[in-house]
Amino acid sequence: MKTKAVRIHGKGDLRLDEFELPGIKEDEILAHVVSDSICMSSYKAAMQGGDHKRVPDDVEKNPVVIGHEFCGEIVAVGEKWRDRYKVGHKFAIQPAMNYKGSLAAPGYSYPNIGGDSTWAVIPNEVMETGCLLDYGGEAFFYGSLAEPVSCVIGAFHANYHTKAGSYVHHMGIVEGGCLAILAGAGPMGLAAVDYAVHGPRKASLIVVTDIDAARLERAASILPPSEAEEEGIKLVYVNTAGMTDPAAELRALTGGHGFDDVVVMAPVKPLVESADRMLARDGCLNFFAGPTDTSFSALFNFYNVHYSSTHVCGTSGGNTDDMREAVALMEKGRINPAAMITHVGGLNAVIETTLNLPRIPGGKKLIYTNKDLPLTAIADFPILGKTDPFWAALAEIVSRNNGLWCAEAERYLLENAPDIS
Questions:
Q1: pLDDT for 158-202, tens place per residue?
Q2: What's the gap between Cα 363 and its chain centre?
Q3: 120 pairs with which residues across the strands?
Q4: To 5 degrees, how large is the angle CA 118–CA 119–CA 123?
Q5: Beta carbons within 10 angstroms of residue 4's beta carbon
Q6: 355-368, pLDDT tens digit by residue?
């Protein structure tokens, strides 16, 4: 069987290739890939080529398929896995397998599996590590968002606290405590707010900050304070752009207690230092943002570390349990990460999008791998719809869904968009 796939051939060298997949072995699975969400990690892998820790050194001779946030359907199952996986079932993949200590991962390291492909052969180690996950949701794109959502879930699980006189770390945000999500009106911030409101452990106060009024307005329309109130949470959106002392003004919202948990969503030195100043006793600062500057640093008050037991943590990605939780919450309709998606496109758009990802505004770029479509902002659907009925129909669908991508929009696209040739 032939597949079309975007593969890394070297530093900055992505190509849309067509090649023959090998027949599956008794311990492998054949999959039809439907959707992939392009991640900044894919940009880093593409630009670094063989210097990337997950990309093979000989990638120039043996190219690998890119894309690790993907969802699709199982087409054929080798004998070893027939009691566990069924033809026709949807799946999502946790790429960070850690198989026998290796950093190898789908979307970085393999010639025949990755998200930016039409068909893929799933190797044995994905199943051995429990990283091929059943996904029973209605839309494929939610399966593609399971991995980024798991990163948020992992961050919330990584926060920890202690009790006076005890050295035991109690994992997770403080139940009924005060939570701040700084620079939280972007795509990953919205996912964090969604999980904080609808996840299993809840703060009593959530303060979400940003310096962009339009982003805050959109965030409040998607996750309104009234919805949080139904969960027993006071949700406050705050524009800190005009504040002379954001830390003090935000801390005042807690009645002087300070924040038990602060999640920093942007690698900005003053933001990190404000977060430090906002912490309550035993407060945990979670540095969620992934800086590209290897020397990024900020001041941290070590007087408070000693006398107030403040501390810091950070995570890079989520684990398989985090991803299972993400899938379960989406299947139950508890969280809706569709707000993360700002653009859609086809497999033909992957190369340009991946190589220019830091310069393309907005949130997640969702790719339908069997389709031929330019990368298109959801906000531009109405404009394009003035002359093209395809975009007009999509504009009408998303307008009925608060401007968000949705299962109905996906179905329409899959049925009506041109196939990749």
A1: 999 999 899 999 999 999 999 999 999 998 999 999 999 999 999
A2: 10
A3: 31
A4: 140
A5: 18
A6: 999 999 988 999 99
